[in-house]
Amino acid sequence: MTGPTPSSAVRTFLAFDYGLKRVGVATGNSFTCQAQPLQTIAAEGDARFARIGQLVSEWQPAALVVGVPYHPDGAEHENTLRARKFGRQLSGRFHLPVHEVDERYSTTEAKSFGARDLDAASAAILLQQFFDAIPVATPVATPAATPSERPE
User: Fold this and answer.
1) pLDDT tens digits for the chain (152 residues)?
2) 25, β-bridge pairs
3) Would you tell me which of 59, 84, 106, 136 could form a disulfide with 122, CB atoms 3.0–4.6 Å apart?
4) What is the Rg, in whole angstroms, of the alpha carbon atoms belonging to the chain?
5) How far apart are CA 151 and CA 138, in angstroms?
6) Whether the model pTM is above 0.90
7) Contact yes or no for 25/40 (Cβ under 8 A)
8) Number of other residues whose CB lies within 10 A of the CB of residue 99
């Protein structure tokens, strides 16, 4: 699993807030660097991965982002290992890079915003954290010259 890297091409991302019973999903792209809650998948096992597969086909992401929980002091716990396993499963099934983001307090933050779908909102918070960690790249293209700026 790798960290964020800047790129000149616009790339779409899907982010996941993993839970045993539900997985929140968000999307965003590298052009706007704005995450949007998408939905919560309330399924387990193969049904969960089938639904994720549909989303991967629909959104064609360049990479996936998975929230990994830690204790407030940074220590790992059982759900840390589960979320990492989920990330490895995503990588293996969909052959996409998976980036991990520390998900401490994402649900608390989603609650403070009054989110109706906490899981999807938490996934959006995770994806926004990922975007915020990407260094700002300089524009690759400059605007076309106006008629008064063109050489004669």
Assistant:
1) 444 445 568 899 999 999 999 999 999 998 999 999 999 999 999 999 999 999 999 999 999 999 999 999 998 999 999 999 999 999 999 999 999 999 988 888 888 888 899 999 999 999 999 999 987 653 333 334 434 443 44
2) 16, 39
3) 106
4) 18
5) 26
6) no
7) yes
8) 21
- Round to whole Å and give the CA distance between 100 and 15: 10
Q: Output phi, psi for 99, to 5 deg.
A: -105, 135
Here the tokens at position 47 are 């049904």
Specify the DSSP class assigned to residue 147.
G
Q: Which two tokens stand for residue 22?
A: 């539900």
Residue for token pair 């938490």: 122
Q: Report which of 85, 68, 67 is spatially closest to residue 76, judged by C-alpha positions.
A: 68
**Tokens 């989603």 map to which residue?**
110
> For residue 98, what are the β-bridge partners?
64
In the chain, the domains with their CATH numbers are 12-149 (3.30.420.140)
